[in-house]
Amino acid sequence: MSRFNLRLPGWDGTSLALDAHLPEPSSWPVPTVVTRTPYGRGHHLAEGAGWVRRGFGYVVQDVRGRYDSDGVWECYRHERGDGAALADWIRAQEWSDGRLVGYGGSYSGYTAWALAVERPESVPAVVSMGPSMALHRTKFEDGVLRLAEHAAWWLERADGRVSRDGLTALLLGGDPGALARLPVVDLPDRLGTRLPRWAEVVRRGPDHRPEEEITERDLAALPTAGLHVGGWYDLLVDETLLHWRTVGAARSPRPPQRLIIGPWGHDLAFTGRTRHGDREHGPQSLLDLGATQVAWIRACLAGADPGPDLVLPVGGRSWLSWPAAGGESVLHAHPDGTLRTVPADAPPGAFVYDPSDPCPSLAPGADRRPLDGRPDVLRFGTPPLPAPLSFTSARVRLDVAAPADDVDWIVRLAEHTAEGQVFELARGRTGGSGRLALSPVWVSLPAGSRLRLEITGSDFPRLARSLGTGADRYTTTATATVHQRVNAARLVLETS
C-alpha cells in the first residue's frame, strides 16, 4: 500500500511532500528506509515497491524547494532540520518500529548522513553511495573549479524547482565552444539561460563553508553502521573512502562499516555491465548491488555480522577486502621518457602550455592513445612488468618551475596494456612543487603491462584552465602561453 503526496512540516513549518510505501498492516511495525531527494520522488516508485516486497517501509521526500515541496531550494541548507522533522514523524507512525535506515546517493547521500547526525538514536544504519557532501568539496578539486561537472549540475539541477535532464547536451550541442570562452563566470549568459547562483559559487571558491556542513568530527561520533558504495570512475570516490574510514571511528566499539567499490561511475549504472568506456572489466565485475544492500541492512538491524568489504581492484579478478599497508615502490622520471628505480641526473623535461589549446579531458574509461601526439604532455613509462603489480595508492613528489603564478600541473598515472591501450588509473592537480596524492585507486596489473606517468598543464574542461597570466581564471579573459619545466618527478606506489 502506498500513500502519495503526504504533506509534512519541515523544521520551520514549510510544507514538504513525501510518499510512504508500506507493507500490509499485518506486518506492522516495520523498519523504514528513508530517502530525501532533490531529483523528484516520483523516480522512486519501483524502488518503493521493491523495499515493500522485502518487508520494509520506504519513505521518499522531495527536499525543500524541489518538485512538490514548498519553500526555496538552496542546496545544503535546511536539510538537517528538515531531516530531523521527517525522522520524528516516521517514528510516531503506527507502522514504524522506530528504526530508520538512511539511504541515498550523491546529494541524497548527504541528506542520509544529515538524518543520522541529527537523529542518531533513530538511524542505526546508512547506505551511502558516492555522497556529495558540500559544494566546496564536490565542485572544486585542489582549489580549482570542476568546470564541466559544475556546469552540467548547475544547468540541470541547481537553480530551479525541477530538474532539466538533457539541457546540458542540448545547449552545448548547439554551442560546443561555450565552455572554452571567457570569462567562466559569464557562462550562463553565453548559453542564454538564467542561473542566479552560478556566479556566487564560482566567485566565492572552495574556501566557503556552508552552515550545514557535516564534518569529519560529526561522522566519527556517530553510532551508525555504514554501507559505503562507490566506483573507481566516480569523481566522489574519495568521499566514499573518507566515510568508510571515519564514520563511528571515535566510538568503542566502532559500529560496523562495510565498503563496496567496483568499476562504476557516479550513478552506479554499470553494476550490471562489464564495460566502462573502452575498458572491459570482465564477468567478475558484475554485482547484484540491490540484493547486497538488502542483506546488509537486515544483518545490521538483527545485530549480525554484516559481511566483509567487497572491492574489485582495477584489473582485478576477484572481490577482496581492503588490504593492510604493505611496502613502497619508488620510480623516478628520466629525460629519455623512462620511469626507473634510480634517480635522474637531469631534469626530465619541459613543455609549453597554451590556454587557447588546453590538453583535453577524456571520459572515464576512455583509451588515451588519441592524445599521444600532443607536445604539451610529458610521458614517462616503465618496461613491461616482469610480474604482477598491486598497489593501493599513488603519490608524486614534484620539483617544478614556471614564470607565471596560478598555473596547473596535472599528473596522471596510466596503464599501458599489453594490447596497446592506455587507461587512466589515477590523477591529481597541484599548483607547484611538493607532494601530490593522486586520486584513490587500488590497481592490480598483470605482467606485461606498463606504467605510464603523464605531466601536463591542463585537464579541460574537467577543470577550469589556467589563463597563464596569473590573473583570476574565472573573471578575466586575457591569456598567455607558459613555459613549464619539470626539474624532478618521483612516483611512490603503496604496494599490497
UniProtKB/TrEMBL annotation:
InterPro entries: AB_hydrolase_fold, CocE/Ser_esterase, Galactose-bd-like_sf, Xaa-Pro-like_dom, Xaa-Pro_dipept_C. Residues 294-492 form the Xaa-Pro dipeptidyl-peptidase C-terminal domain. SMART domains: PepX_C. One of its GO terms (molecular function) is dipeptidyl-peptidase activity. Keywords: Hydrolase. This is X-Pro dipeptidyl-peptidase.
